[in-house]
Amino acid sequence: MPIFRQQAGEQTHDLEHRERTPVHRHGQGHLIYPARGVLSASASGRTWIIPANRTAWIPAHFDHYHRAHGRTDMRIVFVTAALAVQLPDRPAVLSTTSLAREALLALTAPDPAPRSPQARDRLRHVVVDELGPAPEEPLHLPEPQDPRLRELARIMGEDPAGKATLGELGRAIGVGERTLSRLCREELGMGFTRWRTQLRVHHALVLLTTGAGVLETAHACGWSNPSTFIDSFTALVGQTPGRYRRNLPPP
């Protein structure tokens, strides 16, 4: 993971498709923004998708990692403890206004005339002022810890359009259907059908953000009926896939 620019308080990383950072933590909270591409962020047993209209917030001392979906330009801005009190006390993904986006890009862009520390502090205040009251992204995917559920998640992630039942998937990994159903409820707090729907919507977010159309995305994620896909997506994300796609900033 090459760092091609780093200075006090900011970093820029160029990630290749499917590149994943090691699990790590920082002594200072930080904001993560994809200037190009799509990121996923995993922390506290959950995974969020971060397109270019969202910013991830990771407070200090939380273990986390990132994964790139497509070649991704990841920008990081560290936040002082005094400013961090305006942000959630847990990892979150926040809706990002145009003003917050421009301030994040200004803080992390190559600058032939570097800004003064006072100017950079003012930009950080703008970012936090914009993100502090912003709504949190409602969709996060629980990350299973049990190795049997991890294998199930791997299979479904590789083929989100797959039609196999829980029983058929269980036979493929050598685990009974009732055992898998119990593990889903106990560890993930939801049944298998809801978990698979959330996983498919996560995959849909990546496809829509990287330019796929709504109909193409529906079929790629296992919905033969686009209306059912739109209903499922809207219930979890809070807006239709078409509106979500239109609201993405230009690349």
From TrEMBL:
It holds the Pfam family HTH_18. GO terms for molecular function: DNA-binding transcription factor activity; sequence-specific DNA binding. Residues 1-27 are annotated as: Disordered. The keyword DNA-binding applies. Residues 150-247 form the HTH araC/xylS-type domain. Residues 11-22 have a biased composition (Basic and acidic residues). Keywords: DNA-binding, Repressor, Transcription, Transcription regulation. InterPro entries: Homeodomain-like_sf, HTH_AraC, RmlC-like_jellyroll, RmlC_Cupin_sf. This is HTH-type transcriptional regulator RipA.
